[in-house]
Design brief:
The protein is an all-alpha fold. It has two helices and no strands.
């Protein structure tokens, strides 16, 4: 990218996405704990738990991609 100022702004915005990803993963972990019963760690609602597991998996993929993008952007900026 030719304009370093624009690249810096893209990096700043991507960092905000990364922070949001972290928060979303924390929320998903909290939800998973709420869906798990205290007796032998079984789930309270299997269908709902599976949906949240799928969401968590996709969120982890998004988080990884965001981190990769930040790494690439940082290399270009320096």
């Amino acid at each position: 990218m030719e304009n370093p100022k624009s690249l810096k702004e893209i990096i700043d915005q991507t960092k905000k996405i990364d922070e949001n990803n972290f928060n979303n993963l924390q929320y998903l972990n909290s939800i998973n704990m709420l869906l798990t019963s205290n007796d032998l760690g079984s789930t309270k609602d299997d269908n709902l738990s599976k949906k949240f597991e799928e969401l968590n998996s996709k969120m982890e993929d998004i988080s990884k991609l965001t981190s990769d993008l930040l790494e690439e952007l940082s290399r270009r900026h320096n």
